[in-house]
Amino acid sequence: MRVLVTGGTGYIGAGLVRALLERGDDVVTFGPTSDPGRIADIANDVTVIRGNLAYSSEVFNAVKDHRIERIFHLGSMLSTLSNANPWASFQVNVVGTMNVFEAARLFDLPQLVFTSTIGTFALGAGTVVTDHTIQRPATMYGSGKLYCECLGRFYRTHFGLDYRAIRFPSVIGPGTKLRTVAQYNSWMIERPALGKPFDCFVTEGTKGPGMYFKDAVRSLLMIADAPRDSIVMVNYNVGGLVPTPTAKELEMEVRKHIPGAAITYVPDPAIMDYYATAKTETFDDSCAREEWGWLPEYGSLDEIVADFIHEVRTDPSRYGLP
Ligand SMILES: NC(=O)c1ccc[n+]([C@@H]2O[C@H](COP(=O)([O-])OP(=O)(O)OC[C@H]3O[C@@H](n4cnc5c(N)ncnc54)[C@H](O)[C@@H]3O)[C@@H](O)[C@H]2O)c1
Q1: Is there a domain that residue 288 lies in?
Q2: What is the tens place of the pLDDT at every residue in 61-82?
Q3: Is the C-beta atom of 206 inside 6 A of ligand 1?
Q4: Do residues 192 and 309 both lie within one domain?
Q5: How far, in Å, from the CA of 274 to the mean position of ligand 1?
Q6: Residues in Cβ contact with 263 at an 8 Å cutoff, skipping those fewer than 6 apart
Q7: Considering the domain boundaries, does residue 290 fall inside one?
Q8: What is the CA(20)–ligand 1 centre distance, in A?
């Protein structure tokens, strides 16, 4: 199948591109640079297109010229960047996503998979968030993603587009660059694995729901492959790590592998403000489990930490690490 992955050279996108190639798909990536970045080692097997989601014609050309049959739309400005530049975020995350939906409609694409976020839940959401929890985001990023979830549902009912989407919690894995609210989950493991100190920017008791990056990729393939009539909820929470550990519990698991890990706590007041608003501790993904059989492979802290350290130590360059 000819598959377009917007954001395909990014953190989750690169893993998805590798998985799609292994399945025998023809993969085209779309992003703001022609540098293959995280997929440099497989760049000869992929078509890397330079383009801006905010320019509809660039999106349309990519879909038309490569006779795309399925889109995974991962391209986005993440939370920190969106909040720092809400105007650009609107163009990329909202207008850009509308451009992708329009390309799918105009070129009769059979399917479009979108990636949303736990950040669409915030105000008043409580500690347990299900697919039925009212979404009242508190950020530019979450607001844009929520609008696009609603827009996708409209395209599904109004135009018959086979739109389906996943909301990720914090995706834990090696090589993340941006300091987002829950990024401490990844860096708490990565920095010690690289022999570096880590100043954790949340309190020891903070819980930021997460899932392993390999499971994030698997969930995208699973939702794409699910029979159309199994997709009822349409926009789905997916989780992995249950129960959500505190930062301290994560630290203790890392210490089982790296006893001398240099981890200290220097909570960032701005980030702790976020946790005072968004109190989610349990990201309930029952609908994904019931409707299309979602089940994480890495469901416990020990499995994630062990595999993460192994990845960092055996193949750091794959993740852009020294
Ligand atoms: N990483 C997480 O913890 C997390 C959590 C929830 C949701 N998500 C979602 O998953 C998707 C992938 O995120 P990621 O973690 O791989 O982030 P990432 O920043 O590594 O990837 C985003 C990609 O979008 C591309 N992009 C940015 N602006 C663009 C533009 N104007 N035109 C075209 N491409 C553009 C970037 O170049 C990058 O490759 C995103 O939609 C994100 O919102 C991620």
Answers
A1: no
A2: 999 999 999 999 999 999 999 9
A3: no
A4: yes
A5: 21
A6: 188, 192, 197, 198, 200, 251, 254
A7: no
A8: 18
185 lines ligand 1 (CB under 6 A): no
**Same domain flag for 205 and 217:** no
Q: Ligand 1: which of 4, 5, 9, 12 to mutate, most ligand atoms within 8 Å of CB? A: 12
Q: In the chain, how many domains are there?
A: 2
Residue type, 297: E
| 74 touches ligand 1 (CB under 6 Å) | yes
**Cα(300) to centroid(ligand 1), Å:** 25
For residues 20 and 149, membership in a common domain is answered with yes
pLDDT in tens, 4-23: 999 999 999 999 999 999 99
Q: Is 211 in the pocket of ligand 1 (CB under 6 A)?
A: no
For every residue of 20-71, DSSP letters joined together read HHHTT-EEEEEES-S--GGGGGGGGGSEEEE--TT-HHHHHHHHHHTT--EE
Residues 9/29, Cβ–Cβ less than 8 Å = yes
Which one of 28, 73, 78 would you pick to mutate in the ligand 1 pocket, going by the greatest count of ligand atoms within 8 A of its CB? Answer: 78
Do residues 159 and 33 both lie within one domain? yes
The H or E element containing residue 2 is strand 2-6
- Residue 160 shares a structural domain with residue 260: no
Do 190 and 85 sit in the same domain of this protein? no
**pTM for this prediction:** 0.97
Q: Averaged over 265-269, what is the pLDDT?
A: 97
CATH number where 304 lies: 3.90.25
Range of the domain at 203: 173-209+241-277+300-319
Residue 7 CA to ligand 1 centre (angstroms):
6
